[in-house]
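Sat 14:20. Reprocessing the chain from the morning session after the first attempt stalled halfway. Input below, unchanged.
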Amino acid sequence: MTKADKNARQRIYDAATALFARQGYGATGMREIADAAGVNLSRVNYYFQGKVGLLREVLTDYWERYYQALAPVADLSLTGDERVRRTARNMVALFREHTELALAAVNSHEVPISEIHDLRIKIQAAHRDALIEHLRRLGLDVEDRVLMSLLSGLLTTIILQHFRDRFIAERMLNSPEWLAKANRELLHQPDLKPDDAFYVRFADLLADLYLRGINGLAVRPESGIGEQTKEQQ
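Finished this time. Tokens:
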């Protein structure tokens, strides 16, 4: 593949990711993607074999990054506290650095396409055992279907909601029509522009929330749960 081909392919991928994040897979057309990428419609089919191929690549990219962020749960040399805290920090970093990719993937998880459904099941199955062992070591009854349903994706859901709100707020701030009507005081509120310190505390408080909830549900508390780690002391 030539450099020009790689650039065109990347522009198409980036355009599709941005559009899927903003309006969802179903509301995005192939020509819209091609126009946003500045390429001929035939190029989208050539590089990705259509819109489903684009979605498959977006989801694969996201899931690879997602499970890399979850890697601490498989490190059983860490205490439960440390696994949860490192995972929270990784997940916040993932959504912060790749907001459009994360939103594009999450917005498209449940599209009624068997190929996409099968891909999701395959990737989740490859990491299922490590996640279950992590929860078991937190003292949870992994055979309790209600409990597992409650905890499934809990950290991700909270983080997702924050970054979805941020994404919408940033788009509004870049909209001339909205800015013309906006309250000047609102535009200067510091929480509209969270910095590194904000996200360090965000991740730590999220871990606290998760761990305290776990402590209330645990049947076999693991040594180290609720105790301060060396990083916190």
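The CA atoms of residues 139 and 221 lie 4 Å apart.
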